[in-house]
Amino acid sequence: MWSYTLLFVLQIFTFAPTVSGDGSVTAKLHHPVTLTCDSRCSGVLKWTLFNKPGSVLAQCDQTSCRSGEGFNISHDQYLKGNPHLTITAADYSTRGLYTCLCDDKDVCNVRLLIETLEMTRVIAPGEPIDMYLPLTDLVDVKFTPSDAVQPSNLQICTVDKEKIQCRPDYKERASLLNTLQIKDGDVSDSGNYTIEDIVNDETLVIVTVHVREPCPDLKQQEGVPVLVVVLILMLLLVVAVLVFVLVVGYVMHVRLRRENQQLREKAENNGLSLLQQNGNSVH
């Protein structure tokens, strides 16, 4: 009896894999990521998605390993008890809970998350606010204004594939292309816009928007050249008037001199004529 019990216990410690427990890993979008699992398996090891247990992503046995497109697993690591699964390019379609099984028994569960994208937009008043949507399968768009007086994390739109539903004050401004666009950006639109995956309860993108406010100093600086131009034009006008007055005065002066000279010459001629007449009358 004791010998059978001891043999059963030895079989458990020899052949049963060690369960690593649940965990999660966050990957950068379109970057490779490795799902770790430290469990020695002497039988057939498989990696599957929890919600698709019949779809085998990678599989190993004592002789070899094989994996599907976009997935890699090392046979050497499998033999060492480290059957890690590498995803060559993580994206939103690869998110989810992955299960590692040894002879169809769970040994590891790892959830893959995608790192939240953070973007910054700086626009002028009146320009549209564009928010990148990495996917449109039921996502919420929420707004936290820079002005702390206004409510935070306010849901402004919900996108479900090609359908869009927005609050009344955003309904006329929002449109859906490859991005969610809010027209006529205003200073009050400055803040953080959060795009959340409703189904998986994940934050996909945070877009920080700064709408530039017109600066009074800039307006004054823009007004200085106009004032200078006006002053220059006025100065040129004054100079033109002075030149005109001087030219007219000079012309009048020349004309008067000419007329005076003509009068003197005429007077002299008249005087000579009188003298000649008087001389003749004496003779």
The separation of the N and C termini measures 192 Å
- Largest sheet: spatial strand order: 1-9-8-3-4-5
What does the main sheet amount to? 6 strands, mixed
Strand content: 35-45%
Radius of gyration: 47 Å
How many DSSP E strands? 18
SSE order in H/E notation? Answer: HEEEEEEHEEEEEEEEHEEEEH
Question: What does it look like?
Answer:
- The chain has 283 residues and is α+β, with helices and mostly antiparallel strands.
- Strand 12 (139-145) and strand 13 form a beta hairpin.
- A 6-stranded mixed beta sheet has the order 1-9-8-3-4-5, with no helix packed on it. A 6-stranded mixed beta sheet has the order 10-18-17-12-13-14. A 3-stranded antiparallel beta sheet has the order 2-7-6.
- It contains 4 helices and 18 strands.
- The chain starts with a helix and ends with a helix.
- The model is unreliable at 1-21 and 218-222 (pLDDT under 50).
- It has helices at residues 2-15, 75-80, 168-171, 216-282, and strands at residues 21-27, 33-35, 45-49, 52-60, 65-67, 71-73, 85-87, 96-102, 105-114, 117-123, 129-132, 139-145, 154-160, 163-166, 174-176, 179-182, 191-197, 202-211.
- The longest helix is centred in the C-terminal third of the chain and has 67 residues, at 216-282.
- Among the domains are: 22-114, Immunoglobulin-like, CATH 2.60.40; 116-134 and 178-215, no CATH class; 135-176, no CATH class.
Question: What's the topology here?
Answer:
Layout: H1 2-15, E1 21-27, E2 33-35, E3 45-49, E4 52-60, E5 65-67, E6 71-73, H2 75-80, E7 85-87, E8 96-102, E9 105-114, E10 117-123, E11 129-132, E12 139-145, E13 154-160, E14 163-166, H3 168-171, E15 174-176, E16 179-182, E17 191-197, E18 202-211, H4 216-282
Parallel strand pairs: 1-9, 10-18
Antiparallel strand pairs: 2-7, 3-4, 3-8, 4-5, 6-7, 8-9, 11-16, 12-13, 12-17, 13-14, 15-16, 17-18
